[in-house]
Amino acid sequence: MKQKDIYSKEIMKYFLKPKNVGVMKNxxxxxxxxxxxxxxxxxxYIKVGVDKNGEKTIKDVKFQTLGCAVAIANSSVLTExxxxxxxxxxxxxTQKDLIKKLGNVPPLKIHCSFLAMDALKEAINDYESxxx
Amino acid sequence: xxKKKIYLDYASTTPVDSRVLxxxxxxxxxxxGNCASLHSFGVEALEALKQSRxxxxxxxxxNPKEVIFTGSATESNNLALKGVALxxxxxxxxxxxxxxxxSSIEHACIIETxxxxxxxxxxxxxxxxxxxxVPVDKNGIVNPNDVKKAIRKDTILVSVMHANNEIGTIxxxxxxxxxxxxxxxxxxxxxxxxxxxxxxxxxxxxxxLLTASSHKMYGPKGAALLYIKDGIKIEPILHGGEQExxxxxxxxxxxxxxxxxxxxxxxxxxxxxxxxxxxxxxDKIVKEILKTIPRSYLNGDAKNRLSNNVNIRFDAVEGESxxxxxxxxxxxxxxxxxxASPKLQPSHVLxxxxxxxxxxxxxxxxxxxxxxxxxxxxxxxxxxxxxxSDLRKISPFWKK
Lengths: 132, 400
Hints:
The complex is a heterodimer of chains A (132) and B (400). With 132 residues, chain A is of the alpha+beta class. Chain A has helices at residues 9-16, 69-82, 87-92, 95-102, 110-131, and strands spanning 29-34, 41-50, 56-66. In chain A, a hairpin with a 5-residue loop joins strand 2 and strand 3 (56-66). Chain A starts with 8 loop residues before the first helix and ends with a helix. The radius of gyration of chain B is 22 Å and the shape is globular.
């Protein structure tokens, strides 16, 4: 019998098989957002490099998430969208882009994509502040 | 893709037993009459209603005229609290119009009704019903002494559930009933989760009002009851054709009530053996999980709980994602916590037991039933081990 899920196929795909999961040891930036008290926590690690055109690029990315299915799906989508991309481009990403990628996000779960965006900002801030 | 589909959420609702469905079927088409009609169709329906009422009343050791049918346990609980409050309020100058005691782990339909009563209604400006919420201990059990201490001069009603819907803990309602009788305060119990599982004798247990529901015991949705001890005044909420002794106007849902009565009969006959079987499966789940999964914990009382309820939590795992992964493997369990609710709040029951929000977020509820097989339970245990381990690999808080 076919299982029915309350979430879209896309959300379930990322939730059941998330990419870029784990800890990064020599990260350049770490964004820790959320709060276990309210439920969702996301830690995002980025490694920044320079590509052949001399542009700063997110060479690698990893995440760890404690949270619901949508929070985990968002984390995975975010990492896939920024991996290998120029830092400038990643910074232009909005929460709308994440939601678009995930299909039907229930209204109650929209906040999960804010969490992912916050983590990205924090990680980039962390990287920038270390550089100084 | 998962092939199995295993339902382990019987506390949420149960499938209609085929024998119940069979008993109901004639009342949709052949015997469709309105029991308020005076012709033969009506009389046929009325007889079915009376017979159903007799069966159910007898199972509670109540008189048939003390049982009224409603559409849901929520409706019964609303009627119990609002109906008693309005019929027993004191309208004299000054002073309190009335005081109601509930427990901290009641179902939302009790808590919200009590809050509504505390807000205002049908009273002169500036006066409102007073509510006291008595706590539970860390295992989720009310101390009857706390109820005793909370009773005041103006107390009109105590409402404490028989068994909790989330953690399955069984409340000391016999003791609470006794205290209420001594103090001459009315006692209501929400038995939605226990009726059909634990024998109830309203006389021996000093119960004045009791709520029970059909769809929690293999009957159809849309039928529930409120037992109201003979002589207790209660104001109806629904006004109209004066059905159900004038306490619940509405065309009577005969097929659902016939099904409810059949479900009660079956439970009476089969419950004891069946519940022993479920308790063994429950204990197997708890034992296996606590033994094999590190930092897993049982919520609620280990012994004093419904034979079909397992509520368990895991450090560094969120309950909703655990339930969603299990659903992906074909297993239906529930999470009363966090993300499932519109407010994204963790379970008020688990918080009342003293858990921290981050602990409460990690809970799932597994409830067994008549159609649960041992192999389902084995598959569940295996699946939980895998899913918890997978989610912990993603979690930032899991340290081996």
